[in-house]
Amino acid sequence: MIKTGKRAPFFLLCLLAPAAAMAAPEPGVSLGTWSFAGGGPGPGTYAYGGLSLGLSGRLELEALGVAEMTPSPGGDVIAGASLGLSVLGPRDSTYFNMLAELAFLQSVVTDGGPGLGPSYLMLRLSPLAIGTPYYGHRDRMFSIGVLYDIGADHFSAVWNVLIVSWYPF
Amino acid sequence: MNSVSRLALSAAAAIVVAAAAPVAAEPRSPWLGGSVVSVRGFSEDSGLPAGEYFDLGLFVEPFRLKFLNPSASVRSLIPQFPFRPGSSMIEFGVDIDLFSLRDHPLKGIMRQESALGPALAASWAFEPSRGIAAGTLCLTAHALRLRTGDARYNLLSPELLLDSGLNPSGWGLRLFEFSYFLF
After folding, report:
1. Using CA of residue A67, residue A109, residue A120, residue A152, what is the dihedral sign?
2. Could you tell me the residue range of the domain that residue A35 belongs to?
3. Number of domains in chain A
4. CB-closest option in B49, B81, B111 to A37
5. pLDDT-based confidence at residue B78 (cuts at 50, 70, 90)
6. Could you give phi then psi for residue B43, rounded to 5 degrees?
């Protein structure tokens, strides 16, 4: 079990990522679905939102949130940050790309009550990323990941059918 | 039957009648139909298993009317997370696109030229093992329906559910629903 003090760097990262995203060039806004298979907060439909920025030609940082939509809207909410690597080429010029992400996720609302719940590490692969920040639009399709519940020492899967990103600037 | 049930039944009947009305209408669409896919879930009080449903089917949209454009669909709803194929449902439905706006505030989020076409839908979902009569009536509002030349994209469509006695039995939400014209 990770103690709250040890989580501080991750929280700092979660807080800094959206601020940096708005200050840096190519900030992106993402929306998508999020499915937990065999783990996470529990059965239901979840929506995913994120704010991202490019750190280098291939690296990007995203602050993200995952919220339960059904059966209890807002009953479980997770916040986190991910570091993404464009596998097939620079993120700005490779129209068909693949994205690998490493993320820390923290439950901030559990069963309808605010407070820190389980923490997770996630490794996710988006095998098909179409579009680039240069074109103002990118779709990540059929993303699949491994979710590790740090406290429960349990592995499960996550799945995103579609994540759409917009780069308005 | 209470007033909510009467209102819901009237809405469903109006959608079905409006969908059937333009049988001989023009102009015809260059497409007849295609495939539809959505991800959806239901409220705790709906009596349906909690989880994420994957919804896959076929639709037909034979006309290209500027107002009250109808379409129909048949789908299968499969609980995918957790995976419970035994609780899968079949759903028959009709949609009515109320109007179509080419100049709309959500143009910026689409890569292609698009039109905003809010729609209302009524559908009947049932588990084959329980029989078609023991189903659920779903009344859906597609407020965010974006149309392109060969697709329809619906986002965050809320649903009102009524049981086989037409009493309100909960609600649902389609996170997204994409329809692609194929034939």
Report:
1. negative
2. 4-166
3. 1
4. B81
5. very high
6. -75, 165
Q: Cβ(A138)–Cβ(A132) under 8 Å? A: yes
Residue A103 contacts by C-beta under 8 Å, 6 or more apart in sequence? A64, A80, A81, A82, A83, A121, A122, A123, A124
- Which domains are present in chain B? 3-181 (2.40.160)
Cα–Cα distance between B82 and A44 in angstroms, integer?
Answer: 9
- The answer to whether the Cβ–Cβ distance between B39 and A36 falls below 8 Å is no
- Within chain A, residue ranges assigned H as helices are 4-23
**Exposed, middle or buried: residue A64 (CB in 10 Å: 0-12, 13-18, 19+)?**
buried
Residue B161 CB-density burial (10 A; 0-12 exposed, 13-18 middle, 19+ buried): buried
Residues B2-24: tens digit of each pLDDT: 776 677 777 777 777 666 666 55
Q: Please, are residues A10 and A81 in contact by the beta-carbon 8 Å criterion? A: yes
* A131 neighbourhood in chain B, CB within 8 Å: 111
Q: Evaluate whether A2 touches A11 at the Cβ level (below 8 Å).
A: no
Nearest to A43 among B50, B172, B176 (CB): B50
Cβ of A130 under 8 Å from any chain B Cβ? no
Q: What interface predicted TM-score (ipTM) does this complex get?
A: 0.81
Tokens 């989880």 correspond to B51
d(CA A137, CA A129): 10
Rounded percentage of chain B residues whose pLDDT exceeds 90: 58
CATH number at residue A133: 2.40.160.20
Chain B: closest CA distance from residue A108 (Å): 21
